[in-house]
# Entry
Amino acid sequence: MSMLKVTDLCVKYGVIPALQGISFEVNQGEVIALIGANGAGKTTTLHTITGLVEKASGRVEFEGRDITKMPAHKIVELGMAHVPEGRRVFPQMTVYQNLMLGAFTRKDAAEKQASLEAVYEHFPRLKERAKQSAGTLSGGEQQMLAMGRALMSKPRIILMDEPSMGLSPIFVGEIFKIIETVSKAGTTVLLVEQNAKKALSIADRAYVLETGKISIEGPAKELMENDEIRKAYLGE
# Structure
């Protein structure tokens, strides 16, 4: 069943087209990768879905509901979480405070506590550093915090923007393992990632964005075997 459906989405920055009528869908339980070069429109796609960027035209549906004109905070309440590019943690606040901010839409204290325990299970390092200010964490730990914060809203789908950017290879491996764990626990994942090889290795299906248009789509395994993609994105 289609959980997220994007139809003919167009976005302009002034007169410059950023997205030129893209359509794709994400089914429940899938990991979907959006890959492409810098400036292809990957981040814009996520920002537009979550209501942070205005659409020129097109439609976004979440679980059969039209959310095209819905404000961002309402979209979070429906069960969609966004891990932004560059992590965007609140550096002066503690790890614990950052995590609790992720649960701002939830009222039940016991449920929040249960989510916090689940996040600490995924990310033991965050538990160790719960009282530290987020600004003192390494890049990889801040990425874990951004993911943990998104999971605190108990999302049905999580949109991740470049989770491996700027991380050491060890942390990249860890982050991708966690994405797989989150997916296996029942959360649908839409992943924007510069590291196409890693993204395709954990995705079910993938879409390739080129200058605001989808040029190729298909099962991730097939795309990994595609010569064009191997040359352009897998460094082969």
Observations:
- Residues 90 and 232 are 36 Å apart (CA to CA).
